[in-house]
Amino acid sequence: MARLRWAWDFGPLLGDVDSSRLLALLTALGAEGALGNAAKQAGMSYRSAWGLLRHCEQALGAALVVMERGRGTRLSEFGASIVQLDGAARLALDVVHAPWQRRLEELLAPVVRATPERLRLAASHDLALADWVEYGRRISFDLFWRGGEEALASLARDECDIVGFHVPESWAAAQVVSWLGRWLKTSQHVCLPLMRRCQGLIVARGNPHRLQTLADASRRGLRMVNRQRGSGTRSLIDQLLAANGLRPENIAGYAHEEFTHEAIAATVAAGQADVGFGIEAAAARYDLGFVPLVWERYGFAMRSVVAGSPEGKAFLARLHGNTFRQRLLAMPGYEPLPVRAPGAWGDFLA
Fold first, then answer.
1. Which of 103, 105, 157, 220 is most buried (most C-beta within 10 Å)?
2. Within a domain: 230
């Protein structure tokens, strides 16, 4: 998509690329509170993030981050001031640039395609979507499985056209808007809820340990298999642990990460873990026990121009078709949602 861009110039000691990468990293660190997560969100390795920080601190002559025992790495007063300045400037300039952005889009519309012929979909892993992709879909697109937060970050960087993500139905509309606002812009992006699905504890058949919560697993010293950092399910797990006053380091197997719901179920089925967290359909596929804990809503986010394009409309029409909806009804722990058009983020849970 054609866009009007601007960038800071920090002087001769920092090039444009370093300045842009630095702001992305500092902004992510302010939001995430952990350098590892911030580096991933900014699209760089942990080692590259440290190298960039040290290079920029030397060039600017001031500390951008501080390290504290037990608290990890956080923004220094100087670093936080840069992030605040950048955020305030972007809000102001978005308003100033908006009419020029529209004029540029109108000028280029007759000669430039708004969306590629082959859509790029980055999605949080889902069994129903995976089955649909493998069997019977009749639309051309490239699918990349990503953690939900990682996928949203890639949409913000224009690295994909559509993202699949999920949020608990217990969230308020304002919480959804605030969370999505970390990556998306209300003036450019719309959302579409597609289905409900149930997440919970995946355990051995018959639930031999009689687990009802993650706290039960912790108290009994059972082995857990976790989802990878940056996934929506991992965030949900961490929220549940915090709500029960549990510390990750006290959970056996917390550092054992897998990247899909099926991998979680396969690990439990192989006896390599006593409990995992994932969707009911994955437990059923491996003939395992399941303890329901959370109903959530899975859907898509995309730029408005993609939603209105022929390619975007064809993609959504297939998802709203009878074939996919019947597939959802046949899978444990899924429910299709009423057909609707992409709209405002605040309506995602409506």
1. 105
2. yes
Cβ distance 317 to 297 under 8 Å?
no
pLDDT tens digits, one per residue of 300-322: 999 998 999 888 998 999 889 88
Q: Which two tokens stand for residue 140?
A: 């051309």
pTM over cut 0.90: no
Number of domains in the chain: 2
44 and 153, same domain (yes or no): no
- In angstroms, the CA 283 to CA 277 distance is 10
Last residue of some domain: 69, 97, 125? 97
Cα–Cα distance measured from residue 117 to residue 306, given in angstroms and rounded to the nearest whole number: 11
Containing 39, the helix (H) or strand (E) segment is: helix 35-41
CATH (domain of 20): 1.10.10.10
Q: For 98-140, what is each residue's pLDDT tens digit? A: 888 888 877 876 665 555 668 899 999 899 998 888 776 566 7
Domain that holds residue 297: 115-350
At 21 the three-state DSSP class reads: helix
Q: Hey, which bits of 63-117 come out as E strands?
A: 65-68, 72-75
CA distance 298 to 126: 9
